[in-house]
Protein 1
Amino acid sequence: MPVLRLGDDIDDYCIKCKRVTNHSILAIVDGEPVKVRCRSCYNEGPYRRCVVPPSKRELQKAALLKQMMEQAPAPPPPVVEARPARRASQKPASQKPARKPAAKTARKKKA
């Protein structure tokens, strides 16, 4: 990766433009941009690495889901019913024969 300097152009997500645009680097810490300025709307903000931040609605849904999961009761353990052992001489219960569909009657056309 090339060495970044103050004033260099870099792509990043702009909160105001709501899209990835060119940005100028305003501050660098440990060789990575920290603060950038959008070259379209001149909005300054932290470098987001082109990651779109979640909307307020998504954050509210996540918080509500977390709250519901914490309050939900634990599911009961599965109930296993013990079946009586079958003897070899016993036959399984007979199944009912499948019904045949009723025959369709042809309709007469009125002329």
Protein 2
Amino acid sequence: MRSVQTQSLFTLSAVKPLDGLLRYRAFCVAATSRVLQGGTQRLTHAPGSGDPLAQYGDVEQIRYLRNPRDGSVFLADRPTPAAWKALLSEVSRYRHSPEAFHADLSQSRLDHVYAPKLEWIEDALRLQEIHRPSILEAMVAPSNFTTFLEESRSFAEVLVMDEMELASKPENALPTPRVGAAVLLESLDRALDPAALLQGVVSRVESGGLIFVTALVSSGFDFQVLGLHNRYLTPPDRANCFSLSGLLALLRQSGLAPLEVSTPGVLDVEIIRAHLHHEPSLPLSEFERQLLTADEQTQEAFQTFLQQQGLSSFARIVTRKPS
């Protein structure tokens, strides 16, 4: 199975600065809390695996559960699909508004986040000898990635479909023919029903087609160190935070064969340092504090180690739908 590291370096401030995130996080937490007050159903078993869940802790009084077997973390209470869809739309609109930090970083995020993802997709298609397929983007509007896909010469057609619709509508809701590729950029992180979303996507991809998935994973270094102190664990964006093994199990259960599994993140150490600056009393071990004060060469070598061993908190996976 292929694994890819990245040599592309950028700072946390270029893509998701912690200080700027806090205002966005407060909006998300307030919106999620309001929706959850409207009635919910408690999650008892892990999406996909069906493993029983245990208590994990609260994020701003919003309960999370944990799968003791693989370390995946899930939002405990789930509202109706209609309420969740409205929440995702509300948060997405705010994220693209001038009030959120993303607006000030639009060009930087295009350069450091979306352009590399397009290159990753194009490279995988080339390696698998798939020429100009139609591609489906599972998304919550608006999506900055849609324009990248449309302007690329790598795709015969770009189809976009709301994630909640993919999880709930029958296969014939999408125009035929089926697509040769699909992309889910952190879609499973915010899916009310990750297994249903995957099923909806897989049913619309032709045999032999590729499905590209990115996700924050709870098995990554910064998540393991920070736990519930991790300010990037924010609902509804992170309703599900699978471990890498949990995510792979979900994909395989959906009938997909992994071709590439990588954790090419470059920000684990910097994320922890930013959290420590914001919250000096973080319960870090002596080793972790020593790492944060090490020289740049040591920190870069450690981050490379995390990438090579699949231990960074950002996962990038290429799967194939069997013929």
Protein 3
Amino acid sequence: MNSKRSTPRLLLLALFLALALVGGGVVGGRAATTALAARGAATFTTATGQATPASAPAALPDIAGVAAQVRPATVLVLNLVPGQTPGGSLASPTPGGSGVPQGAGTGFIIDPSGIIVTNNHVVEGAQSLRVVLPPPDNRSFDAQLVGRDPQTDLAVIKIAAPNLPTVPLGNSGALRPGDWVVAIGNALDLTGGPTVTQGVVSATGRDQQEPPTASTPNAAGPTLYDLIQTDAAINPGNSGGPLVNLQGQVVGINTLGSSQAQGIGFAISIDGAKPIIDRLRQNGTVTRAYLGIGGLSVTPPVAAQLGLQRADGVVVEQLVTGGPAATAGLQQGDVITAIGGVPVKEQRDLQAALTTQFKPGQAVDVTIDRGGTSQTIKVTLGTKPGA
């Protein structure tokens, strides 16, 4: 009787000892398992029984740290026009608030001398401008328009003030879809300072036409090239504000938000904006070389529709009578593939070359594809009207 009862006891004891050796005891095994799970430092392989390192969980981005770094240099930009006094007469916008805001947007300080970057459509039509620094600073200054460029929707303004915070410019060319970004701006002109939203880079190299503005309500705005698409919320009032990376560097200038979809906003890439900003600071305007065509980027669908033999370049849809291209002999249907040795794969390439690489009055070789045959035509560039 006793020997029969002792056999199960011996088996249970042996099992308990085995568990103790492997896991440090039943209770100890649970503790060890919990500790390993909490550390995420090692796992055991069934083949060797050796500990191997496991991947540590990725750290979440420090959005609060980025905001604390950039928010002080992100300002409210008020576009002011004359307003009505209590007696009914017009009052000029002056320091102290007698001007009436016709719009509010955002800008960011890039130089301690008071240089601020914003959107052209934020300052367009203003008779005066006022800049308000975010809390806890809250200082308010009249601003001077240094220059603006409707073609790229960029503007530079300046305030005279001491002890100004600044935000550094980064490199948008290093962005990848999926990279974290933070948008900061005066969304809806809400009290309390700039709003902070976060998201990722959804895509780069986007082209998008701007909607009509207050000055041209019946005409669409210019097409903006090489935009950053992001799902960080960009709302009215965010225009002109910084889109920054996790190092607190400006990689884009927030300019458009979609009203037809969720999570689609656009920012002007800082790499394309830098030369425009520099020209505005130096000259107050951007003078562009002018070809005198209406062009369209050639894509496979466009090539199929127009019967073109190539699927890149810019097809000439229209020629300005008496313009540089028409005078030189370009024809409707020609496909521009290079200008001055600069390859032209799409419209943005042509736009960038005429803006940053060539000057009015300069004679350049324009390479075209005409009916499948490559030709080179010398064109003397003009000055873009309204530039």
Protein 4
Amino acid sequence: MPFRRYNWKTSVETCIDSKKEDIWRIISREGNLAKFHPFCHTNKIVHWSKKKHIDEIEYLNGLIFRRNFVQWIDNLGYDLYIHQLGKPNSYVSWRIKELEEGSKIKITVYPYLFNNGQKFISYIPFFLIVRPLLRNYLSAVLHGLKLYIEEDSLIKPNQFGKHIWFS
């Protein structure tokens, strides 16, 4: 759970026809986002060891975000803080659950944008702007992961459409 106080979160999940361990092997590999993330230009490693994981994502529009992993649970998922350099952190949790057939992966984001302080002031911009755009973004990322795993296919830039924040 994040240390910073956030008012709201957004989650997206998808089922993948694959074993939990196979999904884990892909999402825990250094530089993994370059294979399946439709808005990722590069996924540069800052530090990647058993105890410490930090990387940077350069999006298609040139923005650079740093991910600092704070909890790493083998074959289950991880939690991380992500931020654009010079901006506040958002908190992200990736979780994998084995199903009777295949697995389910879920990404939950506690974004910093319009998500702290007075709920009354930030409610409308969060739920009318941030949440729908974030859900669209997360759906594209998980769709890319699903195609990468199930069809062994590298994802192309903006494969599922452009995104106003990252394309």
